[in-house]
Specification:
Length: 208
């Protein structure tokens, strides 16, 4: 049997056992008690399990499948993977995602290679159309719109891809929290926080 302690608590625990004559008088104690480092923020970001329920459809189909008929999907192709422009690492899409999917984490890419990770609990195409609208208006509150305006990128050059999806649990109470964790994890993994990318902040409080 084992347990994980923070360093200070590990020392207190061993001290308690010695006071009770459990540790020092037991010839087998070295095989029974051990110390392991507790999880830090980096561990939580990389290994956090923000997913629930089954992946994809019943037939196991995975990837991003735009309909190519609505305004948000026009000229977009299906994708089985995506690449971080900062690390050049390729990631496989392990969910079945369409432009009508909800509770999605998505990736925006501009012509110059900067990327933005976002989340939405509505249909993905609705959120993408909002990004397009903010770019056309030159919305100063949107980091994506500001960049497109400053770099003089046409709105038609915006590329997006659904990269992850949270399936609701039976309780349906923690989905927004898990969606926030999933978004933060991908911001961290893809290195899209400013100035390397277009995300202004990386929220770590959702892992505490």
């Amino acid at each position: 049997m084992g347990a994980t302690f923070a360093p200070d608590f590990a020392n207190l625990f061993l001290g308690y056992l010695e006071d009770q004559h459990i540790y020092s008088n037991n010839p087998f104690s070295s095989h029974l008690i051990f110390y392991k480092r507790g999880r830090n923020i980096c561990d939580r970001l990389v290994h956090a399990d923000a997913h629930v329920d089954l992946r994809g459809r019943l037939d196991g189909t995975e990837g991003f499948f735009p309909c190519r008929h609505c305004t948000s999907c026009h000229n977009h192709k299906k994708a089985n993977s995506f690449v971080s422009q900062m690390t050049k690492k390729e990631y496989k899409i392990k969910r079945f995602i369409t432009c009508r999917s909800t509770n999605v984490v998505y990736l925006l890419t501009c012509p110059c290679g900067l990327q933005y990770v976002g989340k939405t609990n509505r249909q993905l195409r609705v959120r993408i159309n909002e990004h397009r609208s903010s770019i056309r208006r030159g919305d100063p509150k949107s980091p994506v719109a500001r960049h497109f305006q400053e770099a003089e990128h046409p709105v038609t050059t915006l590329r997006f891809c659904g990269i992850d999806k949270i399936n609701p649990s039976r309780r349906h109470t923690d989905i927004e929290f898990k969606l926030l964790q999933c978004e933060s994890r991908w911001i961290f993994m893809l290195k899209t926080e400013h100035p390397a990318g277009l995300n202004e902040t990386l929220n770590l409080t959702c892992f505490l």
